[in-house]
Amino acid sequence: MAGAAAAALLLALATFMVTHAADPYAFFDWDVSYITASPLGLPQQVIAINKKFPGPVVNITTNYNVVVNVLNSLDEPLLITWDGIQHRKNCWEDGVLGTNCPIPPGWNWTYNFQVKDQIGSFFYFPPLGMQRAAGGFGGITVNNRAVISVPFDTPDGDITLFIGDWYKKNHKDLRKMLDDGKELGMPDGVLMNGKGPYRYNDSLVPDGIEYETINVEPGKTYHFRVHNVGVSTSLNFRIQNHNLALVETEGSYTMKQNFSNLDIHVGQSYSFLITMDQNASSDYYIVASARFVNESLWTRVTGVAILHYSNSKGKASGPLPDPPNDEYDKTFSMNQARSIRMNVSTGAARPNPQGSFHYGSINVSQVYKLRNEPPVTVNGKKRTTLNGISYSPPETPLRLADLYKKEGVYTLDFPTMPTDGPPVVGSSVINSTYKNFMEIVFQNNDTKVQTYHIDGYAFWVVGMDYGEWTENSRGTYNKWDGVSRCTTQVFPGAWTAVLLSLDSPGLWNVRTENLDTWYLGQETYIRVFDPAGGYNVTEMVAPDNILYCGLLKDKQKAQKPHGSSSLASSAATLNRYLLAVMLSLVAVALVQ
Q1: Which residues, at least 6 apart from 496, have a Cβ–Cβ distance to it below 8 Å?
Q2: Is residue 451 part of a domain?
Q3: Suppose 533 and one of 202, 225, 259, 537 were both cysteines; which one would form an S-S bond, judging by CB atoms 3.0 to 4.6 Å apart?
Q4: pLDDT exceeds 90 at position 187
Q5: PANTHER family from the entry (predicted)?
Q6: Which of 13, 125, 36, 123 is nearest to 78 (CA)?
C-alpha cells in the first residue's frame, strides 16, 4: 500500500516537474510590520518588510515562478499588489480589493504567480487605505534570460532608487484628513530610498538627518532603476553633471535617449544607464524636486542623495543643479513624455522584436473616454470620480462574486463617455470580452497631474495633448513606436490616449496612482470575459489558499494568528525543503 502511494506521489510530482521544470521558482518570506524611523528627523511609524524600509528588491528572471509568503503583523488588513506584473490570466494574485480579500491582522497568505514573458523595472506596495504613504514598498527587477540579447552592454552595477513625497503624519492620519474632507496639503519632504535629504542648505535641512549615499567607481556604467512611490507629487529627477541615458520603462526597452533631467510621475518607473565620467573633484548631488508647483514655497519638497566616487576629493557643496526652467512653457514636460519611444527592433522577454506586434493596424473594438474632475461632494462626503462615478469597493471581491455567482455585488454599466448627470457612488465596472482591442482616453479636468495605471496589462501610449479629446485627435496618434508601459501621466487640462489588447481574462483594476484621489474613488475595473473558454480554460482557477470575505465570509476557515513571522517562515521553509527533497526523489526515480 505504501509503495502504491509512493508511486502515485512520484507520478504526480513527475508531472509537476515536466510542466514546471523549465521555469525556476523564487521563494520569499515577508513579515510586514511597523517600525519606528525618522526619515525627516521626527520619529514616526513606517511600514517595513522584514524590518527593512524600503522593502527588499525581488530580483528574478523572465518566466520565474514567484512565491511570496506574507505575514500581516500590522493592526489592520493588508494586501500587496505588484505594479506592472501582468499575472497572465491569473488575476487571483493581483492583490487588490476587486480580486482578493485582505489578509487579516496576524494572518499570513502566500502569493504564487509567474512573470511570464516579462522583463523590466517594477515595484510592489500595499494598496489599501493609504498604506503606501507609510512605506511597505520595494522593487521588482525582472532580468532577461541569458538566451535573449539586451540592447546595451552589461552595466557594471544595478542600483534601485525609490523617490517620493513624504508626510510626517502617518497614513491613518492622512486617511482621516481625507475622510473629513480636508486636503493633504504640501508634503513635508521627499525621500530617497527611505531617507531624508542631504544637508545641502543649513536653513532648509536640519542637522542629523540620515541621507542616502550611492557609492560608485570612476569610469564604470551603472543601471539605475528609479521609481516614484510617493503620494501625489510629480518629481524631476537629475544627477549633477551626469547624463541620464534612458533605456527602459516598465517592461519595454526604449530608444536610447539622453536627458539631463526627467519628470517622473507618481507610480512611474524608469531605467537609466549612467556613466561615472566626471573628475570627482567632490561628491555629486542626486536630486528629486517637486514639479508644477510654486517652487519658492515648495523648496522643502526636495530629495537630495549623494553620488560618491571612490576617489572623491570632498563633500558635495553649493547650489543644487537647476530644475527645468519652464514656468511659462507647459509643453516642456509633455514633449519629454512624447519623445520616449519604444525600441521596435530589439527583443525583450522573447527574441522577436518589440515592434512585431503592429498595434497601429488593428481595428479598435471598444472606446472608453474616462474623465476625472476636481473633487466633488456626494452624500455629504468629499469624493473623486471617473465619468461621474466614484468607485466604492464592495465587501466581496468582484472576481470572487463571479466565481460563486453572487449577484448584485457590482454592475456592468460603466459609461463609455463622460456624463453630465450628478455624481454618484457605486461599483460600476467596464464590461469587455477576451481578445477585444480597446482604446482608452484619460481626460484630466482636474488641476493636478494624474497618473493612471492598469493592472494585468501593458498598453501603448499613442497620444497626449492639451484641451478636450475629440475623435479628430486620433490624427495625432503615434501608430508605430509608442512606448508600451503600465502607468501614464495625464497633465491637467489635457488628455492621454492608450491602446491595449485584452488577451488576459479576469477583472483588472484601472486606477489613478495618486493616493489621495485613488482613496476618494478615482478607479474602476475592466471585466475581461471569455464566453468560449473562461474559468479553467483561458483563465486560471482560484488558488487553494483563497481567502473569503463579504458575502462568502462563512466559507473562511479560521487561521491561528501568529505572534511573529517565525511560524509562517518556518512552515514555508519546511515546505520548500520537502518540495526539493520530493523533486529530487522524482528525479532519481525517473533516472532509474
Answers
A1: 441, 442, 444, 452, 461, 463, 464, 488, 489, 490
A2: yes
A3: 537
A4: yes
A5: MULTI-COPPER OXIDASE, SKU5 SIMILAR 3
A6: 125
Interhelix angle 566-591/2-20, rounded to 10 degrees, is 100
Q: Is residue 471 part of a domain?
A: yes
For residue 385, the one-letter residue type is: T
For residue 162, what are the β-bridge partners? 227
**C-beta separation of 284 from 306 below 8 A:** yes
Q: Which domain range does residue 497 map to? A: 359-529
Type of residue numbered 515: L
Distance, CA of 457 to CA of 528 (rounded, Å):
12
**Beta strands, E only, 25-116:** 25-37, 44-49, 58-61, 65-72, 81-83, 108-114
Cα separation of 326 and 347, whole Å?
36
Residues 551-576: pLDDT tens digits? 999 999 998 755 444 444 444 444 54
Show the 3-state SS of 85-109: CCCCCCHHHCCCCCCCCCECCCCEE
Helix, strand, or coil (residue 111): strand
Beta carbons of 534 and 84 less than 8 angstroms apart = no
Cβ partners under 8 Å of residue 369, min gap 6: 387, 416, 417, 418, 440, 441, 443, 469
Residue 22: its pLDDT value, please?
A: 74
Q: Give a yes or no: residue 542 inside a domain.
A: no
- Number of separate domains in the chain: 1
Residue 385: C-alpha distances to residues 382, 399, 444, 446 (Å): 10, 22, 11, 11
Strand pairing partners for 225?
160, 271
Q: What pTM was computed for the model?
A: 0.93
CB 68 within 8 A of CB 55: no
CB-based burial, 70-107: b 16+ in 10 Å, e otherwise: bbbbbeebbbbbbbbbbbbbbbbbbbbbbbbbbbbeeb
What CATH number corresponds to the domain at position 522? 2.60.40.420
The x, y and z cell numbers of residue 162, run together, are 525609490
Three-state secondary structure string covering 396-436: CCHHHHHHCCCCCCCECCCCCCCCCCCCEEECECEEEECCC
Instruction: Specify if 483 maps to a domain.
Output: yes
What are the pLDDT digits (tens) for 201-256?
Answer: 999 999 999 999 999 999 999 999 999 999 999 999 999 999 999 999 999 999 99
